[in-house]
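Tokens as discussed.
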């Protein structure tokens, strides 16, 4: 009898929410476990199976395979690779490039992505950034054709929306990677929109409980998959079995979590838009958002992240909310609030930050699972207390 069942793709054409729960693990094998077991062994008996499937856990691990089967199924893709972090997944993508290759990336990308680009610049890769949410700027940036297009949509923290299908039309056969961390596969499926690789920090919405760091790549191309898998094995960028278990446990509730988080973000965006203490509100669900129409077409819901400019004392605001934890990261069950200038984007030089629109009065919110009325009351009260 196999030790503990098998990682499987659900092959019957079931819908997304059913795949969340049923993909990745076949209960009708082995001991019948209803949860994929946590396989902690680092190495495997050469004669357990003939031919052997497992050699060494840096290369192969059954708990990881169960998670990967699930993540691939969520995007109807052939392959998924789980990584130790979102950053490790991003580094694997950049490992596809060599000296002289050119990357065109969204101008408003995750801070850690900027840091990865800096390392690859030292390796001779040319990285240029452009506002890929603006079709004309995107067209200029993609001529001549680069080796890789790196898209983040929605972006962090301004929630800019890039049209993935539109970029595919502009980019021809150039590899497009979409950092889908902010939307999650529940709200946006980059592969179906024409991207080659979906990148995730599973730390955020996918795992969803702020208790595990993880990353993933999802893709269809077998050759690219082999190269990325080899990179992961050689560099050891693998997640441990317990971390895979946590991500897999978390992802099964993604749809129900994100439905509440989106509802809460909508309620907060509406309250912020009507507050005299607030300037701009950046939320793709608002008709005033420049990416509203593309988001309505490309995403099933406008997401659980929003940002706004505050007309009061930022530090006082952060200190006086009771229900919003002042913390970086996002996508967990608790609501988070942060000021990019003071926290998530602090390492970026101030002039670069300001020219990207990240002003000192910008506040970012990740809506959690609390009652929306409590969140609205708490944030409005904190806005008042920080009034300067
Ligand atoms: C957090 C994050 C990453 C990096 O992921 P880690 O799991 O922290 O390594 C990449 N992209 C985006 C958009 C993120 O929010």
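Sequence:
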């Amino acid at each position: 009898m196999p030790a503990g069942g098998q990682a499987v793709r659900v092959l019957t054409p079931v819908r997304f929410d059913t795949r969340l729960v049923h993909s990745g693990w076949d209960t009708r094998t082995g001991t019948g476990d209803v949860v994929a077991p946590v396989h902690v062994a680092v190495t495997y008996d050469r004669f357990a199976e003939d031919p052997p499937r497992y050699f060494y856990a840096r290369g192969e691990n059954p708990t990881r395979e169960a998670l990967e089967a699930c993540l691939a199924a969520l995007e109807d893709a052939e392959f998924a690779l789980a990584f130790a972090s979102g950053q490790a997944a991003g580094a694997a993508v950049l490992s596809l490039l060599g000296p002289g290759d050119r990357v065109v990336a969204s101008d408003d990308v995750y801070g850690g992505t900027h840091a990865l680009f800096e390392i690859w610049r030292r390796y001779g890769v040319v990285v240029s950034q452009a506002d890929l949410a603006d079709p004309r700027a995107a067209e200029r940036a993609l001529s001549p054709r680069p080796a890789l297009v790196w898209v983040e949509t929605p972006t962090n923290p301004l929630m800019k929306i890039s049209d993935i299908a539109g970029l595919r039309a502009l980019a021809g056969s150039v590899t497009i990677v979409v950092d889908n961390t902010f939307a999650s596969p529940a709200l946006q499926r980059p592969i179906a929109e024409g991207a080659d690789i979906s990148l995730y920090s599973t730390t955020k919405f996918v795992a969803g409980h702020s208790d595990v760091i993880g990353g993933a790549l999802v893709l269809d191309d077998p050759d690219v998959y082999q190269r990325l898998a080899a990179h992961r094995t050689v560099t050891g960028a693998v997640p441990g079995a317990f971390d895979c278990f946590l991500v897999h446990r978390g992802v099964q509730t993604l749809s129900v979590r994100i439905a509440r988080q989106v509802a809460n973000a909508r309620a907060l965006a509406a309250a912020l838009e009507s507050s005299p203490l607030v300037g701009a509100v950046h939320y793709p669900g608002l008709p005033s958002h420049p990416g509203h129409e593309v988001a309505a077409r490309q995403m099933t819901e406008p997401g659980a992240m929003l940002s706004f400019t505050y007309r009061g004392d930022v530090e006082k605001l952060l200190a006086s909310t009771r229900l919003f934890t002042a913390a970086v990261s996002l996508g967990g069950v608790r609501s988070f609030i942060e000021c990019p200038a003071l926290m998530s984007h602090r390492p970026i030089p101030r002039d670069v930050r300001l020219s990207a629109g990240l002003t000192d009065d910008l506040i970012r919110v990740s809506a959690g699972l609390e009652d929306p009325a409590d969140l609205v009351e708490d944030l409005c009260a904190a806005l008042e207390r920080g009034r300067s």
